[in-house]
Design brief:
single chain, 5-stranded mixed beta sheet, 5 strands, Transcription Regulator spoIIAA, globular
Length: 127
């Protein structure tokens, strides 16, 4: 799995992307890396592009572990919206919907199959 991120400080957005097969360790490492970046502030919005994800190893227990990791003191708390973009309603889409539900659905997390809808939801113009 490859994970990368780019920060747009002026717009207050983290652009993140995953590819290949995603595991619990990969997700934890990627989130910790982005949130440890000194430019990131809690109110930043995040757009996660999952276009190149081919599979995941995040079953129910692992998804719960990601939710618990986010809720723990291991990472700075984020308050901005989090949009996931996955181009098709497939197994990755299903895993992200499960993550959203387990996260408590406080209105801060959404999963999209339309990139421009995801961008709009976090306040960005269409591409």
């Amino acid at each position: 799995m490859a994970a990368s991120y780019r920060i747009d400080v002026e717009r207050g957005v983290i652009f993140s992307s995953y590819s290949g097969t995603v595991t619990l360790a990969d997700v934890r490492a990627a989130m910790a890396s982005a949130r440890a970046d000194p430019r990131v502030r809690p109110e930043f919005r995040t757009l996660v592009d999952c276009t190149a994800v081919t599979d995941h190893r995040l079953w129910f227990d692992e998804t719960v572990a990601v939710v618990e990791f986010i809720a723990s003191d291991a990472l700075p708390r984020m308050t901005g919206r989090l949009a996931f973009y996955v181009p098709a309603r497939n197994v990755v889409y299903g895993a992200l919907r499960q993550f959203k539900t387990l996260s408590g659905n406080d209105g801060r997390i959404e999963v999209f199959t339309d990139r421009n809808a995801a961008r709009s939801w976090i306040g960005l113009p269409p591409e």
